[in-house]
Structure formats: C-alpha cells, structure tokens
Amino acid sequence: MSIRVLLVDDQVLLRTGFRMVLAAQPDMEVVAEAGDGLEALEVLAGGTPVDVVLMDVRMPRLDGVEATRRICAAAHPPKVLILTTFDLDEYAFSALKAGASGFMLKDVPPAELLGAIRAVHSGDAVVAPSTTRRLLDRFTPMLPSSKAEHPTAELARLTDREREVMLLVAQGLSNGEIAARLVLSEATVKTHVGRILTKLGLRDRVQVVVMAYESGLVRAGGNH
C-alpha cells in the first residue's frame, strides 16, 4: 500500500516540485494539497485518508505549528514532517513540541526527503540530522524549568539501562548505533525505546529528545 501524503505549503511551485518527486515513487501517493494550515485541517476533516503530512511552518491564516498541534491532538493522527527554509527556526522547534515527528530543510536532497517520509511512516522519527540538535541546543535556554513540565519523578520510572538508551536517543543515535555503543542487539534497543515511550507517555523519538532537553538530562551542546 502506498504512503498517502498531504502537501501543505503556501508556495504552489514548491508543492508542484514535491509532488513530482513523490509521484515518481512506487510506494508514495500525494492524495491532497493545501495552501495553509486551515486548508490542511479541512482536508483531514473531510475524511481524506492521510499517512504523512509534509507541513510548511510559515503560512498565512494558520501556521504549521498550530496546524500540527491540532492534527496531533486527534485520536489517530497522521505523522507530521515539518518543512522549513531555515535550519535554526524557532517555529520548527515549536512544531516538534507540538507533536511533529521531525523536520527537514526545503532544499534537502530528494533521497533524504523520501527517506524521512518512509521513516516517520514506519513509526520512527527524524532526529538524527545535526540541524535538529543545533535547533534544540539553541532553544534550550527558552525551555520552561524541568519542574514545570517534567518532574524528576517521571524519569525515575526508567531503569538505569533505559536512561542510558534515552541519553543516546537524545544525542541523535539510531537504534543500530545505540546497539553498537551498548553492545546490545538492535531488537533489544527497540524494546528499550518502546518502554521509554510507554513509561513517559511520549509519542516518538522526537518527543524523547525534547523531554531530555527540557528535563536537563541533556544540556545544550549534547552534554549530560
């Protein structure tokens, strides 16, 4: 079955370019387009089945951050992949907090964009690019205090091994890289990540990264 994609961008030429790239893939289909966040919400409310939303952040009427927040608050939301012009964009950070599964630059090579779409569709999150970590590092000082949103008690639910895995996830390592670092099987790492998500009530790896920064488990620069 094809990955059903909704393109959301106020620039028609960009949507056309993305549509051409996606249409050439045997496992992808652009099922709808929208020129802003409100139109995207209308498409989804109309019952169009969507697996992944490619979401611009800066748009008229309703920006991508608020649209992402509303989409991810639904019972069974599609995955949202943010598209941004700047790799250090406070809007992109806000979208990650709102529930997006990652973000990509608009000038990303087509192969990387396609890989990101497949990754978020399969349940992974796009957190490895250095741009994501730089974004988090830059905006960490603006985060609320850890006591306000993520009490230490929440992290106390994790075992020592789970905290170790969480730290490596927050540093942008893939399951395979974590497995090699900790001398574990990739399946075991995947199990640990699943338990971390369940215990902390988080949606995906991006949420793990954000919480690690908010709680102080990881500080700006990737240190802990």
UniProtKB/TrEMBL annotation:
The modification 4-aspartylphosphate is found at D56. InterPro entries: CheY-like_superfamily, NreC/VraR/RcsB-like_REC, Sig_transdc_resp-reg_C-effctor, Sig_transdc_resp-reg_receiver, Tscrpt_reg_LuxR_C, WalR-like. Residues 151-216 form the HTH luxR-type domain. It comes from the Bacteria. Pfam families: GerE, Response_reg. Residues 4-121 form the Response regulatory domain. Keywords: DNA-binding, Phosphoprotein, Transcription, Transcription regulation. One of its GO terms (biological process) is phosphorelay signal transduction system. PROSITE patterns: HTH_LUXR_1, HTH_LUXR_2, RESPONSE_REGULATORY. One of its GO terms (molecular function) is DNA binding. SUPFAM superfamilies: C-terminal effector domain of the bipartite response regulators, CheY-like. Coiled coil: none annotated. This is DNA-binding response regulator. The lineage of its organism: Bacteria, Bacillati, Actinomycetota, Actinomycetes, Kitasatosporales.
